[in-house]
Structures are given as structure tokens and as C-alpha cells.
Specification:
This is Gamma-mobile-trio protein GmtX. It comes from Halomonas piscis. The protein is rod-shaped and about 110 Å long. 14% of the residues are buried. A hairpin with a 5-residue loop joins β2 (176-177) and β3 (183-185). The chain has helices at residues 3-11, 16-34, 42-48, 57-61, 66-80, 100-123, 148-157, 160-165, 189-199; strands at 169-170, 176-177, 183-185. It folds into 2 domains: 3-88; 142-199, no CATH class. The chain has a 3-stranded antiparallel beta sheet, with no helix packed on it. α1 (3-11) runs antiparallel to α2, α1 (3-11) runs antiparallel to α5 and α2 (16-34) packs parallel to α5. It contains 9 helices and 3 strands, in the order ααααααααβββα. By secondary structure, the chain is mainly alpha-helical.
Amino acid sequence: MKNEDLLLKLKEDATPRTKKTLDAIYEVCSEQMERGVSDFSIVTISRLGAKRGVPKPQSIRNKSGEKYRALIESFSDMAGGNVKRPSPSADDWVEEIASAKHKLLVRSLLSDLKNAKNKLNEIIPPGSRIDVYDHRSQQAGEEEKLSQQERRALEYLISNEFVGKWNFRATEFGEVVDEGGQVVFKAATIDAIKKALNNL
């Protein structure tokens, strides 16, 4: 059925207000066809025809908007094979916000979010893998682990053999001092070495 015929069919037994609205939708859709645009989404048609009496998107989607949807779908089906149909916008829903102030704020937030995502993509290319872990994580790379030689070197520093050879002694503060009481290893050094051996 041609769009003109469908329009006449839909207007049968319709109220004067509904007929007027159908005519407005028909005009907007016809103009879209003439421009070679196949975007016949409810949001787009509602926006383009707002000053002509085309209802808001939610009204068209309601049960009472069945005739309006049928007419829009008729144009959409006709244009489908002739012009590439644009992908629906992810933020079409913003147009359904009644308050102009809130709509503007949401648009601003969406713009900020898009800019933030673009900046992140510049720093971290899409598809890159980022592993976050501390030194105790099992996923830590081998370069974070002590080699056997490094481990033996640290173990030697806190061994009785090392302390005895140089006549050092460990204090209760984790220091290592020589015979004269001079500090060789600062406080907490012994504890730090033990923790390194346990975690690396």
C-alpha cells in the first residue's frame, strides 16, 4: 500500500485532531524522503515536526499512537531499500526529557563523558590489557621476584654467620650494630629484609 493510501485509510473514523497529526507526520516523512534521508526514527520525526503538531516520542509510542507509528513505519519500510539507514543514536532517549534545562544538562554530561573516553583511548589504546597487582599478587611478573642469588644475598645479611664474622649484633629495634655500638644497618632493616624474603 502506498503511503498516500495508508494515510487516507488511517484517517478514516479518526478524530479531527488525529487527522491533523497524521497530516503533519506525513509531511515530515515526505520531506525526509525527498532529502534522501532514511532516518524515520520516532525521535527524529517528533523533533522535526514539533512545531507542526507532531506529538512527543513517548506519545507516539503509547497505545494511542498506533496510527502514527504505522504511518512512520510505512515510510521507513519504503526508504529501507533505497538509502542507507543511519544507525540509531545511543542518546536518542535524551530527546524524551521534558525539561529543556535537564535536557541541556544531560547533553553536557554526555559530551564530557565522550571527551573523557577519547582521552583515555589516547593514553590507553582500545584492546590493551592492564594488570594491576601488588607485590604479593600471584600474577606479578617474574621480574618482581627475587632471583635465587638475590635471595641468598639477603638471607646472608641476617644470618648468624654474617653477624658473627664481623662481631655485629642485632638490637631489639631491628638495627645491626658493631662492637663499638655504631649502627651498621638502620632500625627496621632486619624486618624489611625478612618481609622481602617472604613476599618476593
